[in-house]
Amino acid sequence: MGIDRKQLLKEMGARYYDARKAKGLTQEEAAEIADVTQQAISDAELGKSFLSPDCMLRLCVSYGISCDYLLTGAVSDVDALIIDKQIRALDPVAFTHYKGITEHFLAAVNKND
Q: Where are the domains of the chain?
């Protein structure tokens, strides 16, 4: 069973796009981080081409996602550690807000199960 290259490009492109938007970055800013052109970022997000591994790694670090997540969409232990680090950096007030949001989200998700 082989990997469908077109489907992989499309799915990775969507994850690139979502992660960039979640960080509030423009394609130009992402291009600067990855040391590529804005067109290369656009092509990757549209699923037209792959970025090189070093560019992919720079973007993953900047976006706060693992390469595993970018490639497969699966959340790994690395992703959990990234989130844990971000949570630990919150001040007490922000943590209280985060906790409340998380509790409401989990209640809604579990209600639908």
A: 1-73, 76-113
